From TrEMBL:
<dbReference type="InterPro" id="IPR011257">
    <property type="entry name" value="DNA_glycosylase"/>
</dbReference>
<keyword id="KW-0411">Iron-sulfur</keyword>
<keyword id="KW-0408">Iron</keyword>
<dbReference type="InterPro" id="IPR023170">
    <property type="entry name" value="HhH_base_excis_C"/>
</dbReference>
<protein>
    <recommendedName>
        <fullName>Adenine DNA glycosylase</fullName>
        <ecNumber>3.2.2.31</ecNumber>
    </recommendedName>
</protein>
<keyword id="KW-0326">Glycosidase</keyword>
<keyword id="KW-0479">Metal-binding</keyword>
<dbReference type="GO" id="GO:0016798">
    <property type="term" value="F:hydrolase activity, acting on glycosyl bonds"/>
</dbReference>
<keyword id="KW-0378">Hydrolase</keyword>
<dbReference type="Pfam" id="PF14815">
    <property type="entry name" value="NUDIX_4"/>
</dbReference>
<dbReference type="InterPro" id="IPR029119">
    <property type="entry name" value="MutY_C"/>
</dbReference>
<keyword id="KW-0004">4Fe-4S</keyword>
<comment type="similarity">
    <text>Belongs to the Nth/MutY family.</text>
</comment>
<dbReference type="InterPro" id="IPR005760">
    <property type="entry name" value="A/G_AdeGlyc_MutY"/>
</dbReference>
<dbReference type="InterPro" id="IPR003265">
    <property type="entry name" value="HhH-GPD_domain"/>
</dbReference>
<feature type="domain" description="HhH-GPD">
    <location>
        <begin position="42"/>
        <end position="193"/>
    </location>
</feature>
<keyword id="KW-0234">DNA repair</keyword>
Amino acid sequence: MYSEEQKQYFSEQLLIWYGRHKRDLPWRQNKNPYYIWISEVMLQQTRVDTVIPYFHRFIEQFPTVKALAEAPEEQVLKAWEGLGYYSRARNLQSAVREVHERYGGQVPNEKAEISSLKGVGPYTSGAILSIAYNKPEPAVDGNVMRVLSRYFLIEEDIMKPSTRVRMEALAKDLIPEGTAGDFNQALMELGAMVCTPRSPHCLTCPVMVQCAAREEGMEEALPIKKKAKPPRPERRLVALIKGEGVNDGKWLIRQRPQEGLLARMWELPHIELGHSEWQTDEVNMDVLRETISLSEGIRLAPSGWLMDTDHTFSHIYWDMKVYQCSLDQASLSREKEGLLPFHYRWISQEELVQFAFPNVFVRIMKAWQEAQG
DNA sequence: AAACCGGGGTT
DNA sequence: AACCCAGGTTT
């Protein structure tokens, strides 16, 4: 394997460096397992600077396991609005409810128990066990794989599950007695601050002189990572529907399905366009009216183009055209009979803050409001 | 193993 | 414009 000297040097120097350079982050104020848990879930695929304000608001709104367990899901989703990967929020609350009911609100400190919770995978279980309870478990994230692949010159594809398993064994082996929490955080801190994906700051690195990749001039080439597939393009026509009469000043929004992309979030009504090219605005508005009529049973009256926008998810690219609409008279009279589809609602600007929207729709609504002056 | 699941910062 | 981020779940 690797020499004991190289491993021991790494762990010792890293801990010394961490003691001097660790950032003062909100979730490092104490070892409350619930707070550690919240922070680790928020930090999945999300940068520290993005998470900080969300973390503060979240623990203020849901200060305890009990508070989060008893909160309505819509409120939790709203608190997560803009962070992305919303299944994290839904799984987190589901898991917290289980901790509340099955473990009396105490976050488990056993690997098997904590790993069985929804949304808690190998990384998060290791992070909570080591940081909150100082248990000698590895917490291998993208930072850790980058650091280890460079220091030990590991040329395996880090996208492969087998590589992560190997990294976990190595990372666990590197933990000095009684320092799991600090050591795991030190490893991630080094990856975030020094051993960065591109242009690593090797000259300030505490373990540079023993870094195998540096020795070989390979630090920029590691880690090896198979290229991801580009997102597939989709064209969408969006209806910004303004109310009239009793609904004056309100917008018509709808809730997304229970499962799948952006599950249970609210959005502006829209359709996916099948063909490969955009049509004229006139044709687009006809298609929008007819398709919404067929699928939802409400009649739109599109009145004009508002804006173009786009949004990239991890695996889908949305190219969007937004049209101003109202409901035509037939729909208005039917709505008075209570025939608006159940997942649709009229809401005022003030009520907007109660509903969780994907960021792409937040942007559209803000742009419209600013255009109004 | 591959696909699904957001959104934004860095270079 | 490409790359990546304190990943997990489902197929």
